[in-house]
Amino acid sequence: MRTDPVGLVSRVITFLLLNNFLRSFMIVREMNDCADEFSLQALVHDTELQAVVSQISGPFGVVMLNQHAADITLNFLCNTAHMSGVHERLLFFTLDDVSRYRLLSEYPDLNVFTYEAQCLQDTFIPGDASYMSFFLLRTNLIRALLAFGRSFWMLQADTFWRNTLFESLEMKQSTFQVALDQSGYDGSSDTRKGQMNGANFFVSYSEKTRKLMDDLFWYQSHFYVTDPDAIKVMCNSQHRFNCSYIEHRLISGWEWIYGDQSMAPSLIQMDGESGSGKIDTLKRYNMWFLSENGTCDREAVDRATRQMEAGTVPRLFSSSKLKQKVLIATGQLLSSLPIFGAIYRTYGGIPSLYLQFF
């Protein structure tokens, strides 16, 4: 008996779609259960959070973490320790006392606020409920800080700073609601640019920005979608919101390393690895600055800076990087298709591809 290949493929695709729908439904439900632990009202009315934020003048940066990201965060603090005024303009939003203690034991003058959410204590795995819930919390924190009338940067600690972000660019204009970091780097194809990376971005206070973030939270709490892909839908809606993109000369992604390494950006975000794999990768890039006993090695920071400026950062190969390159190539192909490409650039995206197939 001959097998119908077309029928077999269609049945496999149908099975995968149904399986993905069920998985997505279960994860979104688990996310919303988790979100009960960090409601907007609880954050807005937290007097300790209000007090910590009020102590920081001007636009500041926010770094979120639990104990599993403490080492990465200490590496970031070592990277920026010599940059005047940077630590004073950072708010560390920790999810447990362990990470709080580790940060303050090395840098006792940091601005640290701890909010314990039991559902966010484990190591995050891309695409799982805790990972998606973490970014749901990030959106609620953004909404709370906007309720305080503040403009600020949302930052990730897996980013190497060659120069201080606060001196490189001050977002003083109020014509946009958000200034988003772009995927890729200067040498990326046009289909890769103008897409939110979602690691380091600026939020400008206004009532319209508050509406944008309210809408973002609604999307995140109802659909299995990353916040970069959700915010892309709103930013591409004509006449609703004004979203700006940060130039690659200021912030680039890891792809810069795999280009010609010219025009070194001020910041480079080292995405693409998870767990201990990210630390190992940073070490291989010569961007790990903590010695064996955990102390900050300033000379290692200087060497990494010279390495970037000389364009001699090692190019590494890993399963994570290969996976991302396949996704990027697939996304660029879909974006270039007539008619469908425009729809995909608004409603699809690299993060969504990752969620659905990996």
UniProtKB/TrEMBL annotation:
Residues 1-24 form the signal peptide. The keyword Cell inner membrane does not apply. Coiled coil: none annotated. InterPro entries: Nucl-diP-sugar_transferase (IPR005069). It holds the Pfam family Nucleotid_trans. The keyword Cell cycle does not apply. It comes from the Eukaryota. Keywords: Signal. Residues 86-282 form the Nucleotide-diphospho-sugar transferase domain. PANTHER family: GROUNDHOG (HEDGEHOG-LIKE FAMILY)-RELATED, NUCLEOTIDE-DIPHOSPHO-SUGAR TRANSFERASE DOMAIN-CONTAINING PROTEIN. This is ABC transmembrane type-1 domain-containing protein. It comes from Steinernema glaseri.
